[in-house]
Amino acid sequence: MEALQLRLQTTTQEFQKLQADLSASVEARQRLDAQLTENEAVKKEFDILTPDNVVYKLVGPVLVKEEQDEAKSNVGKRLEFIKSEIKRVEGQLKEIGVKTEKKKVELVELQTTIQQQQQPQPPGITA
After folding, report:
1. What is the pLDDT of residues 112-126, one digit of tens each?
2. Which residues are CB-contacts of 46 (< 8 A; sequence separation ≥ 6)?
3. Could you say which of 17, 46, 99, 105 has the lowest number of CB atoms within 10 Å?
4. Could you report the per-residue pLDDT of 6-40, keeping only the tens digit for each?
5. By CB neighbour count within 10 A (0-12 exposed, 13-18 middle, 19+ buried), where does 89 fall?
6. Under CATH, which number does the domain 2-118 receive?
C-alpha cells in the first residue's frame, strides 16, 4: 500500500511539472503571437514607403538612420524566425499535451487502485 502511495505522490509531482511546462509553453506562444503581429504591422508600413522616406532605428535612447533595404530585410528575417519559433513551440505544446494526458490516466488508475484497496472486503462465503 505504501508503495502505491509513493507512486501516486511521484506521479502527481510529474503531472504538476507537466502542467507548469504546458503553462510556460502557452505563455511563450502568446509572446510569439504578439511579436508576429507587431512585426507584420511594421512590414505593412515598410511596404508603403517610397524611396524618399527615411527609416530610423532605435538604438538605446538614440534614433539612428538605417537603409530601407536593410530595415526591410531585418524585419523579414525576424518574421521568419518568429514563425519557426511558433512551429517549435506548437510542437512542444502537442508533445506536452500527450504526456499530460497519459499522466492523468495513470493518476486516475492509481487513485482507483488505492481506493479499492482501502474499501473493506466483504466477508467470504464459506461452504
Report:
1. 998 888 877 666 655
2. 55, 68, 71, 72, 75
3. 105
4. 999 999 999 999 999 999 999 999 999 999 999 99
5. buried
6. 1.10.287.370
